[in-house]
Amino acid sequence: MSEGWLLWELMRILRYRKRTRFIKTRGKNHFLNELNRASERYLHIATHGRFSKRRGTYLVTPRGGRVYVDNLQDLWKDRNRSEIPELVVLSACHAGHADMVKAFSNAGCRYCIAPLHETLWEDAANFLVVFYKLLIGEGFTPWISYKNAFAGLSIALPKLSGAWRFYDWGEKCIP
Predict the structure, then answer these.
(1) How far apart are CA 26 and CA 33, in angstroms?
(2) What is the model's pLDDT at position 1?
(3) What b/e readout covers 3-21, taking b as 16+ CB neighbours within 10 angstroms?
(4) How far is CA 34 from CA 37, 62, 76, 153, 165, in A?
(5) Do β-strands 111-115 and 87-91 pair in parallel, antiparallel, or remain unpaired?
């Protein structure tokens, strides 16, 4: 079971499913098409992330596709700002590097949350369950949801992996 599927099940259990949508992508082109068509206010992308010294941060899609920052340069280009997702959560190791975050920010997405380092599956799941409970269930803003999830889990799980970061218009915010 993937962390994305676990979160989808949580949305069902908490009865948030009517406000969420789960898409299993089938490769790089399908991923990019679905990302460009996304109409939700919040996007959660559960995949693998890597960093290449030559090309920078990239996301790995099923069937071995690689989505680099330059693949995102035309993302949401024909949309009004109100039609662009407000938040992208990149649940992918190493996705919190500035190049990937700025690609989403430059496309018009205000907030981005992503881990800077390698992240254990269960740590991502723990962090995101608390984050989404606060965001969707309690109605807090993305920043307050992140800050409270981060603070609570830093105490409960001091060795939480990933070094999750919150960005506002591509700039890192410190809780």
Answers:
(1) 11
(2) 58
(3) bbebbbebbeeeebeeebe
(4) 5, 14, 11, 32, 25
(5) parallel
173 alpha-carbon distance from chain centroid: 16
Sheet holding 42-46, edge to edge: 42-46, 87-91, 111-115, 164-168, 171-173
3-state secondary structure of 16: coil
Q: What is the pLDDT of residues 63-74, one digit of tens each?
A: 889 999 999 999
| Domains located in the chain, CATH noted | 3-173 (3.40.50.1460)
The residues near 84 (Cβ < 8 Å, ≥ 6 apart) are: 76, 107, 108, 109
Query: Which tokens is 4 given?
Result: 């994305």
As a dihedral over the C-alpha atoms of residue 173, residue 22, residue 108, residue 52, rounded to 10 degrees, the angle is: 70
Query: Does the pLDDT of residue 164 top 90, yes or no?
Result: yes
Rg of the chain (C-alpha set): 15
CB atoms within 10 A of CB 173: 14
